Amino acid sequence: MEKITLSKFTKEELDNYIVDIGEKKFRSSQIFSWIWQKNAKMFDDMTDVKKQFREFLSENCQITNCKIKTRQISKDGTIKYLIEYSDGLCAESVLMRFDNRANLSVCISSQVGCKMGCKFCATGKNGFKRNLEAYEIVSQILLIQQDTNLKITNVVFMGQGEPLDNFENVKKAIYLINNNLQISIRRITLSTSGVIAKIYELADSELIPTLAISLHAPNHSIREQIMPIEKKYNISELKKALLSYSQKTKDRITIEYILIGGLNDTKECALELIKYLENLKCNINLIPYNPVSDNNFKKPNKKDMLKFKYLLEAAGKKVTIRLERGADIDAACGQLAGKIK
Ligand code: SAH
Ligand code: SF4
């Protein structure tokens, strides 16, 4: 008989299960805290749970049904994990350890592969395999906490997949991250290529994460060349959705903009971008393009990058250039290809 996976449960579901098998409800709180707060890897770690009950749990249940298949550690401390699911498919997660000492961020995947097919992205090149279930998404964080015995403080949906193309599972995962892992909703960021209909729905949901948008172009024609989603959801409609989201949350939106040499890193592009972002409260994150095999895109040169940044700043925008993290282990943005079987 297949074991019951306890990390699939919300607190209420775990309470019900524990009571159903004839145990006292407070056991549920103990187990819940061992799984989600105290990084227990096995039931025997749960020292305040009586031995007989631990044995019952070991025989009938498992904490998670996913496992760490490989881990690669970068020179800068970034760790890339390959997480294997029960059907043998894998997705990648990245732990960014040294952002600053108080913060420990993990970048998680929402799908195995991605349907969106952005031209610059390694994930998009490999096509789509399947959506991840909510608990499979959250298990990435759980396994990394178990592995490092550290508490994750920030979560970004910036790994493989388009989170808004797996909306119900992602919404439930946000709930579990917030409730079970006790990570504040303000420290959860969802990055999307711009599935507009779902951006409106997200703004109406109970837990509204910080939004990051993969914009990558200042106008329709450049965006269309590199992001197929622009054909369905265009950049002017996107602006309306972003304004509405930021009015609702009163929070800044993060604009992600990959600088691709000669394509979208010119002075004209910077000026057009400034115009596009008028009236929107945002932080702009410039990401130097990370080369992916078999396309003709080029890295931007440093001078153009700094000039682009300067132009935006001169217009009063908040801009950072994203550090390349874990580049030596292909853990940088857009390089998560995974091993799709
Ligand atoms: N699908 C969502 C979430 C994945 S986030 C989205 O696209 O927003 C992955 C981030 O890495 C996105 O901002 C994406 O645009 C960026 N990215 C993809 N390929 C890249 C590359 N080759 N170089 C730099 N950034 C890249
Ligand atoms: Fe998918 Fe995002 Fe990559 Fe585009 S950038 S292919 S949406 S993962």
List the helices and strands and how they pair.
Layout: E1 4-5, H1 11-20, H2 25-36, H3 51-60, E2 61-62, E3 67-73, E4 79-84, E5 90-100, E6 103-107, E7 111-113, H4 122-125, E8 128-131, H5 134-148, E9 154-157, H6 167-179, E10 188-192, H7 196-203, E11 210-214, H8 220-226, H9 229-232, H10 235-249, E12 253-259, H11 267-276, E13 282-288, H12 302-314, E14 318-321
Parallel strand pairs: 1-2, 6-9, 9-10, 10-11, 11-12, 12-13, 13-14
Antiparallel strand pairs: 3-4, 4-5, 5-6, 7-8
Helix pairs in contact: 1-2, 5-6, 7-10, 11-12
The structure holds S-adenosyl-L-homocysteine and iron/sulfur cluster.
CATH class of the largest domain: Alpha Beta
The stretches of 5 or more residues where confidence is low (pLDDT under 50) are none
What binds here, in terms of ligands, is: S-adenosyl-L-homocysteine, iron/sulfur cluster
Taking the sheet with the most strands, its summary is:
10 strands, mixed
Amount of beta strand:
15-25%
Structural class: alpha/beta
The whole-angstrom Rg is 21 Å
